[in-house]
Amino acid sequence: MHPIRELAAVLYPLPEPGSVTPDDCFDDAYEQTEDLRKQYADNLEAAALGTDGEPMILALEQARAQKEEADRRIRRILAYAREFYPPRRYPLRELGEASGYTPSGVNAAYGEQEIQLVQSQIHRDPRRPARGEDPS
Q1: Which phi-psi region, left, alpha or beta, contains residue 3 (left: φ > 0; alpha: ψ -120 to 50)?
Q2: Could you tell me if 106 and 99 are in contact, meaning their C-beta atoms sit under 8 angstroms apart?
Q3: What tens digit of pLDDT does each residue of 98-114 get?
Q4: Pick from 127, 100, 132: which is nearest to 113 by CA?
Q5: pTM (2 decimals)?
Q6: Are 95 and 106 contacting, i.e. CB atoms less than 8 angstroms apart?
Q7: Do 40 and 26 touch, CB atoms closer than 8 A?
Q8: Which helix (H) or strand (E) holds 20?
Q9: What's the CA gap between 102 and 80, in Å, rounded?
Q10: 40, 8 in Cβ contact below 8 A?
């Protein structure tokens, strides 16, 4: 197998029999995974040819970028949950467990930038004054 195709196989493992529910969807899941592998391999090969980059390094850079984007998404969700979500505020423990942060790290995970971004996207103010603002 070609190294780029092998890398696609590593990143998109085929489902095992019995791992898909309901069982009659197994063939579809298998086919979908094969399509994802082909699409990933084709895209990685095109990126490598277009940039003269090493496919393994490009794959790692892409994975790192996805990880960084996931972290940004988590910070925005935390800002929304803590600052905007009505009517209940989620406990820090629950948010921490769900996001991978410690309870004390939840409030430190997001800042004014994330609050402002959420505010601009949902077109309403936070339920409480933004950090550092005088509530009066």
Answers
A1: alpha
A2: yes
A3: 999 999 999 899 999 99
A4: 132
A5: 0.78
A6: yes
A7: no
A8: none
A9: 18
A10: yes
Tokens of 3: 């190294």
Q: For the chain, how many residues are written?
A: 136
Closest CA to 128 of 76, 82, 74, 96: 82
Q: Which residue stretches of 21-127 are H helix? A: 26-51, 55-83, 92-99, 103-109, 112-122
Closest CA to 116 of 106, 107, 126: 126
Phi, psi angles (nearest 5°) of residue 61: -65, -40
Q: Give Cβ neighbours of residue 126 (< 8 Å, ≥ 6 apart).
A: 83, 84, 115, 119
* pLDDT tens by residue, 28-82: 999 999 999 999 999 999 999 999 899 999 999 999 999 999 999 999 999 999 9
3 SS3 class: helix
* Token pair in block for residue 127: 């339920």
Which amino acid, 9? A
Give the residue carrying structure tokens 């991978």: 100
Rounded Cα gap, residues 34 and 13, in angstroms: 9
